[in-house]
């Protein structure tokens, strides 16, 4: 196995563990992937709990054919990852979580509006809800692409979320921040209707987002 593929495997394994340790997923739920090179991605396997996951179980997949070239059975959500990578050459990493507060919004099919400054800086705007599609289908990825626009994360209807980045560190950070913001929003809804950011804060935050992502 070429060294750059082993490095990608280690990176995916490390961030999958961090995702699990941050309690954004349980058991083997959710998935993590990144580009290896122009022809391949590395992705977490199917149905292996994160607490027992090892580096060598990360699967290397051919981006064009979708076939595993090394490793076990890839994540059931592989079609979604492939669709995003094929449609968005700028995306180099994907983190898909089932974090509790984000998933609460997903079953309500309720977007996460811009209520905290960090949302504009890290997401680029409100987090929209992608249309529902059955798990493991190409349609999930197509709906993600439509709902993402030029932002870094979407909520999947009745499912969880998808966060993207130039590298896994960025994608995972987006997922962590999204869960934190979703928790604040859901808790605030219990007391009343949360107030969104003023337009000047939205503009300033969006400018910071664009500068960070050039």
Short description:
It is built from 7 helices and 8 strands, in the order H-E-E-E-E-H-E-H-H-E-H-E-E-H-H. The protein is α+β, with helices and mostly antiparallel strands. The longest helix is centred in the C-terminal third of the chain and has 22 residues, at 168-189.
What does this protein structure show overall?
The structure is a single chain. The mean pLDDT is 96. The longest helix is centred in the last third of the chain and has 22 residues, at 168-189. The chain is of the alpha+beta class. Helix 2 packs across helix 5, helix 3 crosses helix 6 and helix 4 (117-123) packs antiparallel against helix 6. It has seven helices and eight strands. The radius of gyration is 17 Å and the shape is globular. An eight-stranded mixed beta sheet has the order 4-3-2-1-5-8-7-6, sandwiched between helices.
